[in-house]
Every structure is written in structure tokens, then in C-alpha cells.
Input
Amino acid sequence: MGKDQQPQPQPYPVQVPLAPPSYDDAMKNIQTNVPYASAPSAGFIPPQPFAGGTYVQQPPVIEVQRTIIALPLGPTPARITCPRCNAEIITSTETEPSCAAHLCCLVLLIIGCCPLSSLPYCMDSLKNVRHTCPNCNMFLGSYQP
Ligand SMILES: [Zn+2]
Output
């Protein structure tokens, strides 16, 4: 009765071959997966320098910010906004002889026209007009005819 039950090791060989093949397959899958995983990441790097390139293009944009205060100043008082006190003012003007006036006076003296040497200082076309702010006395510009 007991002898019939001893020689039956069938379940052992069936279970052993199942486990090892799956382990080897797993090892091979990992090896083939590694190069695959690194390849996509390498292809992802090129787009990054592109993003940096757009960053470099920002400095030129700053150059566009040119604040040239071109005040419309003529020979007469002008109504402008003072850049210092930000008040809307009418510029106070004062005339001063220009370099051309000094030059004409010098020439008249040299050629012997002493009575006429002061004439250039009376000509409006030889005078500069200085515009200043009546509030803060800031020099706003000069008009040169
Ligand atoms: Zn002012």
C-alpha cells in the first residue's frame, strides 16, 4: 500500500523549467530596453539649445528703448511738459549771442568797421534762444536759428 505512493516525482520537473526561462527573457529584455531608453533622451537634447537661442535674442529688444526727448523748441516760448518737475509749463526764454555773432563781430573789427561791430549782437538770426523751466529753472534746450 505504501510502496505505490513513493515513486512519483512528477510535479517537480514540471515546475522547475517554468521559472528559469522567464528570468532569462527578463534579462534580455532589460538589455535591449536600456539602449532604447537612452536613445530618446539623446534626441531630446537638441531642442534645448533652440530655447537658449531665443533667450539670446532678448538683449537686442532692449536696444529699441531709446528715450530721445526731442522738445519742440523754437524762437518763442513753448508750451511743454517739464521732464524734471513734470508740470505743464510755458518755457521762459532768454536770448544769447551765438558763436556766429561773435565771429561776425570779430570780422567787422578786423576790417575796420568798429561802429558796426555791435550789429551782429542785435540781429535775431545770430542769437540762440535758451528755454528754461519757470518752475525748477531746468535748462530744457536752446533754439539755434
Ligand atoms: Zn520744471
User: Anything to note?
Assistant: The first strand starts at residue 79 and ends at 81. Residues 82, 84-85, 87, 133, 135-136, 138 surround zinc ion (CB under 6 Å). Strands lie at 79-81, 88-90, 92-97, 127-132, 139-143. Helices lie at 11-44, 47-56, 58-63, 99-110.
